[in-house]
Write a structure and sequence with these properties.
By secondary structure, the protein is of the alpha+beta class. It has six helices and ten strands; from the N terminus they run βααββββββαααβββα. Strands 1-2-3-4-8-9-10 form a seven-stranded antiparallel sheet, sandwiched between helices. β5 and β6 form a beta hairpin. It is globular. The protein starts with a strand and ends in a 14-residue tail after the last helix.
Length: 216
């Protein structure tokens, strides 16, 4: 398994602390995080959290701070280069995703586009952002927007929630699966979960963990 650990700066730490409500939140956090992959200015890092990208049969990005751990799908590939940095690219097209492209994509998704909008309006957002960044190949951008827009996120969060604890209705320790209110559900836990345990639950290359039938 390829594992890359990323220290977080104050900006990303604030993003991690905010709740994820929809796919757009997931995409923007992913894109901002990818800009840190080759970032080495240690004085900007926050010691209260970390990000880990794991790529094997599963491809996931993990975020954790003192009181929160969550994960979702990482849709790109990483390759170490001769200078010790990582090349980020789309494995289907081999298209390299540079910091400029990441900034451009962030600009597009910050324009409040959503999956209910028409494709024509989305194209308008793309063209506007491409013009701002003087990027001419709209087809490249369109393919990446579509990839991100229609990816299956696989969002899951470990929560320690002393404020809303309510017996078995809302256990102190639990997993929240999915983020939208209509699709989300909880799985109660009997003890605190560490990051390695959380990762093991999601790692399809290790033995499965079981729900106890006595408690279902």
């Amino acid at each position: 398994m390829k594992i890359i650990e990323i220290k977080i700066n104050r900006f990303i730490c604030e993003k991690i602390s905010m709740p994820i409500r929809d796919k757009r939140d997931t995409i923007l956090l992913l894109l901002e995080t990818m800009k840190l992959v080759n970032h080495t200015e240690n004085n900007l890092f926050n010691k209260k959290g970390k990000i880990m990208i794991c790529i094997d049969k599963m491809s996931r990005i993990f975020y954790w701070t003192d009181d929160k751990i969550f994960s979702f799908y990482f849709p790109f590939s990483l390759e170490k280069t001769g200078d010790g940095n990582y090349r980020i690219y789309d494995s289907l097209t081999d298209f390299e995703i540079t910091n400029q492209m990441l900034s451009l994509l962030i600009s597009i998704f910050e324009k409040n586009i959503n999956q209910e909008e028409s494709l024509e309006n989305t194209v308008d957002h793309i063209i506007d952002s491409a013009n701002d960044y003087e990027y001419k190949n709209i087809d490249d951008i369109w393919k990446l927007v579509v990839k991100l827009w229609y990816m299956e996120e696989g969002y899951i969060r470990y929560d320690y929630d002393a404020v809303h604890e309510n017996g078995k209705m809302h256990p102190l320790y639990h997993l929240d699966v999915n983020y939208s209110s209509g699709a989300s559900y909880k799985i109660g836990l009997y003890h605190e979960l560490q990051i390695e345990e959380f990762k093991e639950i999601l790692d399809i290359t290790t033995d499965c963990l079981y729900l106890s039938s006595a408690n279902i």
